[in-house]
Design a protein that fits this description.
heterodimer, A: alpha+beta, two-stranded antiparallel ribbon, elongated, B: about 210 residues, mainly alpha, about 65% helix
Chain lengths: ~270, ~210
C-alpha cells in the first residue's frame, strides 16, 4: 500500500493540473493535515493569480510586417553579398584584433630578421699637418686593417674597430672596458668605437711653433679630411654620413699690451 | 477551510488561453504547403500562432514592442528553416522553442546593457499604446476591476523579477497551460528539471505576492 505523507502530497499538488486529478488518498490527507491543506490553498491562489494574466494580442499589421520583412530579405539575397547583413559583437572583434596583432608582430619580426645587417663605422686616421704629425699615436686598428679607406666598412677589426661579421653573441660577450663596444638591440648589431681609453696628446713647451713670451703657440692635430661613417646593409643599401673637418687658428688673434701679436696664425696652429 | 473544488477554477483560464484549432488542416500540412511555396499556408500558420507567441514573449520580456519584434523574428526564422523542419515534434513545440531562445537571448542582452524599455512606461498593460506614465500608487483601490488590474500588474512584475531559467517554465505551465512533457521539449531539458524549476518559481512568486494570497 502506498504510504501517503506530506512530502508526496505536496509534490502531487504541485504537479496536478486540477484538483480532480488528485488521488483519494491525497484528498483524505488534505482533510486531516492542516499544513498540507494550507499549502494546497496557497498554490491554488497563486496559480489563479498567474493564470489571470490575459493573452496579449499581436498588432493588426503583424502579417503585413512579416510579409514585408520576408520580401526585403528576398531582395537582399538577390542583391548579393552585403556586409550589412553581418553584426559584429565584441568577441569577434576582439578575436580579429588579436589575430591582426599577432600577424603584425610576426610580420615585423620576419622583416627585422631579413634586414638585420651590420652597421659598420668607418673612421679615418687623422692626418696631421703640423710638425708633430709624425708623433707616434696609439693605433686605432691593427696593421693590415684598412682603416683609412673612405666609404668602406671594416669587416674585421679589433680593439675599437667595427666588427660586423662576428656573431652577435660574441659581440655581446665583450668586456665593457674594451675599446670596441658592440650592442645587440632588437636583432641589429650596432658597433661603436670608444675613445675613452685613447691617451690624450701631450704638448710640450719645446714644441711650440712660436712664443709670445708667456703664451707659446702650439700646433694641434686636426684632420683636414672629413670624418665619414658608412652604414652598409647586406641588402645592397648603404648610407654614408660625413662630418666636416675642423680647422683652427685662421682668425685667432692674441692681444697683449694693446698690440695684436698674431693676426693670422698658420692653419692648424693655436 | 475552503472546499477543494475551488481548484477547478484553474481549468477555465487555461482552457480559454489555449487557442482551439478548428481548422481541419494540421500544422504539419500547412508547413508542407509552405515548403512548396504556398504563402497562404504560411499566413494561416502565422494567424494561428501570432497571438500566442506575442503574448508569451511579452510575458517573458515585459516589453510589448520588443515582444512584437521578436514574435515577428520567430515567424521569419520558421519560414527560413521550413526546409529543415522535422515533423517528429508538434509544430507548437518547435515555434515555442524558437520564441523561448529569442526571448532569453533578448533578456541576456538587456542584462548586459542594462536596457530599460522607454516605450514600456507609456504602454497599457494589454499592449496598446497612448497611455500616460503609470506611476505606482500604493493607496488601496476601491473598484474591483481596478484591484484585479493592479493584481495583474503585480503578478507581471513579480514574474519579471524571476531568473530566466525559472521564468520560462512557469509561464509555459501556468500562463500558457503547456504540459510538462511539452515544456521539457521546448526547453530541451528533462521533465524532472522542469518540475523542480516550476516549483522553485512558485516559491519565489509566493514570497513576492504574499500580500495578494
Amino acid at each position: 500500500m502506498r504510504v501517503v505523507n506530506c512530502k508526496t502530497v505536496c509534490r502531487e499538488i504541485e504537479e496536478a493540473d486540477y484538483v480532480k486529478n488528485l488521488t483519494a488518498l491525497t484528498m483524505g490527507h488534505l482533510r486531516d493535515c492542516e499544513r498540507c491543506h494550507r499549502f494546497c490553498d496557497e498554490r491554488r491562489k497563486l496559480r489563479q493569480l498567474v493564470a489571470s494574466l490575459e493573452t496579449v494580442a499581436a498588432p493588426p499589421d503583424f502579417d503585413l510586417r512579416i510579409r514585408s520583412q520576408l520580401a526585403n530579405e528576398r531582395i537582399g539575397t538577390r542583391a548579393g553579398f552585403l556586409f550589412t547583413n553581418f553584426t559584429f559583437g565584441f568577441p569577434p572583434l576582439a578575436l580579429a584584433t588579436l589575430i591582426l596583432v599577432i600577424g603584425g608582430v610576426f610580420t615585423l619580426r620576419a622583416w627585422n630578421a631579413s634586414t638585420t645587417n651590420p652597421i659598420a663605422a668607418l673612421t679615418e686616421t687623422p692626418q696631421a699637418t703640423g710638425p708633430s704629425s709624425q708623433r707616434k699615436q696609439p693605433p686605432l686598428t691593427e696593421p693590415g686593417v684598412r682603416a683609412n679607406a673612405v666609404n668602406r666598412p671594416l669587416p674585421i677589426a679589433k680593439d675599437g674597430a667595427v666588427e660586423s661579421t662576428r656573431p652577435a653573441r660574441q659581440l655581446k660577450k665583450r668586456g665593457p672596458l674594451g675599446s670596441g663596444v658592440a650592442l645587440l638591440r632588437n636583432g641589429r648589431r650596432l658597433a661603436t668605437r670608444e675613445f675613452s681609453s685613447t691617451p690624450a696628446l701631450v704638448v710640450k713647451k719645446e714644441e711650440a711653433v712660436a712664443s709670445l713670451e708667456s703664451s707659446p703657440i702650439f700646433p694641434i692635430e686636426a684632420s683636414l679630411q672629413p670624418l665619414r661613417l658608412s652604414l652598409d646593409y647586406s641588402g645592397g643599401v648603404s648610407r654614408t654620413i660625413s662630418v666636416p673637418a675642423l680647422s683652427f687658428g685662421s682668425e685667432r688673434v692674441l692681444a697683449r699690451d694693446g698690440l695684436s701679436l698674431v693676426r693670422n696664425s698658420p692653419k692648424g696652429a693655436w | 477551510m475552503e472546499t477543494l473544488s475551488s481548484f477547478d477554477e484553474l481549468r477555465l483560464p487555461v482552457a480559454l488561453r489555449q487557442e482551439v484549432i478548428t481548422d481541419s488542416t494540421s500544422d504539419h500540412a500547412l508547413l508542407e504547403a509552405t515548403r512548396t511555396g504556398d504563402e497562404d499556408a504560411f499566413a494561416e500558420l502565422v494567424s494561428r500562432y501570432r497571438n500566442q507567441i506575442t503574448s508569451y514573449i511579452y510575458r517573458m520580456t515585459n516589453d510589448y514592442d520588443g515582444a512584437v519584434d521578436l514574435a515577428q523574428e520567430t515567424f521569419v526564422r520558421v519560414y527560413r528553416a521550413v526546409d529543415r523542419y522535422q515533423s517528429s515534434y508538434a509544430f507548437s513545440t518547435y515555434i515555442y522553442r524558437i520564441a523561448t531562445n529569442l526571448a532569453i537571448s533578448e533578456l541576456r542582452k538587456r542584462k548586459r546593457r542594462r536596457l530599460v524599455s522607454l516605450t514600456g512606461f507609456f504602454q497599457n498593460h494589454d499592449g496598446s499604446e497612448n497611455c500616460e506614465l503609470d506611476l505606482v500608487d500604493n493607496r488601496p483601490l476601491q473598484d474591483t476591476e481596478l484591484v484585479a488590474t493592479e493584481r495583474r500588474i503585480a503578478v507581471q512584475r513579480a514574474i519579471g523579477t524571476l531568473p530566466e531559467k525559472y521564468r520560462a517554465p512557469l509561464i509555459l505551465r501556468d500562463v500558457e497551460g503547456r504540459s510538462y512533457e511539452e515544456i521539457s521539449r521546448i526547453l530541451q531539458t528533462s521533465e524532472g528539471t522542469v518540475k523542480s524549476r516550476i516549483s522553485r518559481a512558485r516559491d519565489f512568486l509566493r514570497d513576492k505576492m504574499r500580500a495578494y494570497l
